């Protein structure tokens, strides 16, 4: 294959390498597999990775700009920290981690919805040519590959099944359906993914977005909605990157979890599979940012203003408000796991002492108190 190829068929973007060994996790045949040397190879990357590299190179050659990014250190440290989570395991408190891994797997499964993203006629939305770009392939394989990676496809498990297998091998126990329901019912705040929206909720969200447009009315609403969706997806992928690194570190402690490192290995495969998701989203958003938007009236707008506006608003919201929602949600799961524990208060005290942030007696996080005081 020529390295200059920038146009790919959906079948190519969905094609996997031949594997010497399949990946079996928890008795379930999963996607991906191992090459002859025993190295894990992510599914559907035979052409997808070369394609992403070619689009990145083409973008660099055409525009010479850096790809859009948000530095990972802009995101707060995972809560609870690795020492805090290890402490709970040392105390024999497994339920919070078991619930957390169940939530991650469940939310990964919601990724199936990515294939339903509605896209406008993208070429009509931009002045410049879009052939041979990542954005031109969103609906031609990229979203479909992403959805399959997260939720599994046909008889092959995906990340959903891999997380459940990691949980089962590491903790040798599962939360009850009732416990999972209780945890999932708490989700749904901004930045915390709950259940996928119902068709009625989708219609309501759409109506609200149309009433509060971020871009000029002249820009096709479907394009605005697609950019918002991609930006949110990218931010979720980046937060996931950090929490998966946390999980891998925690699960690699063979003294504290069962399975001799199997769970951590499964998470490392998931992490490898996530890399193309982050890469194609950054590339497609950057291609839009560096082009000229064409409104329905024919008027033109700088892509940097359009994508930049959405990007700034959503990253700010995600890093500020949602950060606390995610932490509160994680803390609620820890409290749930300690329900009825005879040493609950002593364990919580030591747990907080091990963290970067503590909960004050008023129920406010220490870093929030500091931020409020600084703002006075
Ligand atoms: Fe995933
Ligand atoms: Fe992903």
In short:
The chain is mainly alpha-helical and 376 residues long. It is built from 14 helices and 5 strands. Helix 2 (48-63) runs parallel beside helix 11 and helix 4 runs antiparallel to helix 7.
How many helical elements?
14
Global outline: globular
Share of residues in strands: 5-15%
Q: What is the typical, i.e. mean, pLDDT?
A: 92
List the bound ligands.
fe (ii) ion
H-E order: HEEEHHHHHHHHHHEEHHH
Structural domains: how many: 1
Fraction of helical residues: 55-70%
Give the N-terminus to C-terminus distance in angstroms: 61 Å
**Secondary structure: number of strands:** 5
Structural description of this entry:
- This protein is mainly alpha-helical and 376 residues long.
- The chain has one domain (68-375).
- The chain is built from 14 helices and five strands.
- It has helices spanning 10-13, 48-63, 82-90, 95-110, 122-125, 138-151, 159-171, 177-186, 199-211, 221-251, 262-289, 303-338, 344-353, 366-375, and strands at residues 21-25, 28-34, 40-41, 292-294, 300-302.
- Strands 1-2-3 form a three-stranded antiparallel beta sheet.
- A hairpin with a 5-residue loop joins β4 (292-294) and β5.
- α7 (159-171) runs antiparallel to α11 and α11 runs antiparallel to α12.
- The model has no long low-confidence stretch (mean pLDDT 92).
- The chain binds fe (ii) ion (2 copies).
